[in-house]
Amino acid sequence: MDMTKPEARGKVLALDLGAKRVGIAASDELGLTANPLSPIQRGSWKQLLQQVRRLVEEVGAGTLVIGLPLRLDGTEGEAARSARQLAEKFRLSLSIPVHLQDERLTTFEAEEKLKASSANRQERADRIDSEAAAIILRDFINSLELKKQPDL
Hints:
Blueprint: E1 11-17, E2 21-27, E3 34-41, H1 45-59, E4 61-68, H2 78-93, E5 98-102, H3 106-116, H4 121-148
Parallel strand pairs: 1-4, 4-5
Antiparallel strand pairs: 1-2, 2-3
Helix pairs in contact: 3-4
């Protein structure tokens, strides 16, 4: 996984890995928008791989981005190590590039966005994971744009 020079091929699929659910978001072909999709239930590695493979095919994704849950101080804990291990498994199992994206505060940002949209508590609970995945995806797309900018 080359985290120094990420680039996206076509549509990008993003995952926010939770203990029980995985939030999903996909970009448009041009990488301009990040759209939340229905989350999936997290099961075994084999089940997760099958579901992600199906989503990659359905969406036509050429790149997979996985949220890296760093601590607020930027260090890695058990959740980040687990995300890195899963990203490596996806890299070995899929034929598309797999990148990690810092996901600090994405759940908080997603919650605030959903509150501002007047979503009730149940709607927020149902949508929070995929809204966080959309923020991870947006941040990844923005990081690509920054890398394209010439140095001033």
